[in-house]
């Protein structure tokens, strides 16, 4: 136990919204925030009502329509984004610890990855807008077709619980960079770091109403936001079913959606791969972030000649993963976010056994502690791809392994999914890597590497993994209106289009 956690348990934080530059009075319905390691209350969330959501959207609307933000110079926006970057970095240790306590994700990872990424998102977009331009075309002398990317308006940004600050910051940084105003709603399970970010930024950095925060459940606060007629777009990261519900709500107002949803990514290991690196990376891809990652390589395919060796080694490595308190150095797997996610793992293990899969590791709660939502990292050998454990997103430390012989067969099994987020390929044969990459129906393909994000590239999914891309030009498409202005210069004869 560390003092930070003890302090929160003794005196839970009270968290609410932040509208028009001011904290919202803490009088909304109370939602208890649990520490998944201790199951104790560490915060009380005061839910923002439908009326508060309306106030937040109106504040963002007024700031967009009448405030200075969308007309600021690139240099001014860059300075603001960098001020937020610096504020996050100045508080990185505190934010890393808070994120680890709230999510159960090992502090080693929140420190090295989540919070660094949260800050880097702001630096990235500051640099991007310094480079990005519009487009100009000419058809004939004197006619200029100009394409510009204009701020879109009020952006509703709904974040997930598996990388709360890092992924929400990606949305905030992108929306602000292109001159928009925002209403942010974090997951009601993990609101602490985003709320802390609002405190850290304070009031001087952005004009009033540009960045607003509402907090609460998806049912009340989230659905009020997604159905609000005053938003211009909504960017969501989370589960596919929730994404579908939000899309249905947005359809009425024809609002622009950006959806980063679930995955069931194939990790294809050919027999000629660098075995040791592929093994290490398979472990990382499936179990990093407690396995709670949309891009997890949770569906492993191994080619037959190396299957026996891989199965033995992988099983051993998974059984050796250090499960524990996310604040203790060296912990590799912390608790699941809540009891429901922990129980999901057991249910899927039972479902796998019922469909003739073989349990290689895990499959039950971790019993090393009397408290906490701990589950054993689980691996099952699946006879084919039709099993529920190979088709459905489990979103936890749960990997399936299938054995394959032919390239054509593994590509077809990899694509046999309603999802299409990421594909991982391990081979020394470049020709094959490029061929398989071209055939995979996924938004991102990683060859001989676990996840590397280059924020200049777009990240997002085919099929039910989402709509739109985050990063670089993908974020620009998401957060701007593309305007075409056609300019004719000098006196010209008009085109004859059926009228004299
Ligand atoms: N990044 C990803 O791919 C993630 C996937 N998941 C998957 O989704 C499943 C369900 O997870 P949940 O905890 O329910 O999170 P979720 O991902 O479905 O919800 C995330 C956010 O959406 C909000 N929300 C929920 N219903 C809403 C609605 N009708 N309108 C507007 N906002 C709404 C929530 O308040 C939260 O801020 C998980 O079991 C997991 O499989 C969960 C988190 C992240
Ligand atoms: O950007 C990353 O590095 C990770 C992204 C992960 C998700 O979007 C997710 O798990 O939802």
Automatic annotation (TrEMBL):
<dbReference type="InterPro" id="IPR016163">
    <property type="entry name" value="Ald_DH_C"/>
</dbReference>
<feature type="active site">
    <location>
        <position position="260"/>
    </location>
</feature>
<dbReference type="Pfam" id="PF00171">
    <property type="entry name" value="Aldedh"/>
</dbReference>
<feature type="region of interest" description="Disordered">
    <location>
        <begin position="1"/>
        <end position="21"/>
    </location>
</feature>
<feature type="compositionally biased region" description="Basic and acidic residues">
    <location>
        <begin position="1"/>
        <end position="13"/>
    </location>
</feature>
<keyword id="KW-0558">Oxidation</keyword>
<comment type="similarity">
    <text>Belongs to the aldehyde dehydrogenase family.</text>
</comment>
<keyword id="KW-0560">Oxidoreductase</keyword>
<protein>
    <submittedName>
        <fullName>5-carboxymethyl-2-hydroxymuconic-semialdehyde dehydrogenase/aminomuconate-semialdehyde/2-hydroxymuconate-6-semialdehyde dehydrogenase</fullName>
        <ecNumber>1.2.1.32</ecNumber>
        <ecNumber>1.2.1.60</ecNumber>
        <ecNumber>1.2.1.85</ecNumber>
    </submittedName>
</protein>
<dbReference type="InterPro" id="IPR016160">
    <property type="entry name" value="Ald_DH_CS_CYS"/>
</dbReference>
<feature type="domain" description="Aldehyde dehydrogenase">
    <location>
        <begin position="29"/>
        <end position="484"/>
    </location>
</feature>
<dbReference type="GO" id="GO:0018480">
    <property type="term" value="F:5-carboxymethyl-2-hydroxymuconic-semialdehyde dehydrogenase activity"/>
</dbReference>
<dbReference type="InterPro" id="IPR016162">
    <property type="entry name" value="Ald_DH_N"/>
</dbReference>
<dbReference type="InterPro" id="IPR029510">
    <property type="entry name" value="Ald_DH_CS_GLU"/>
</dbReference>
<dbReference type="InterPro" id="IPR016161">
    <property type="entry name" value="Ald_DH/histidinol_DH"/>
</dbReference>
<dbReference type="GO" id="GO:0047102">
    <property type="term" value="F:aminomuconate-semialdehyde dehydrogenase activity"/>
</dbReference>
<dbReference type="InterPro" id="IPR015590">
    <property type="entry name" value="Aldehyde_DH_dom"/>
</dbReference>
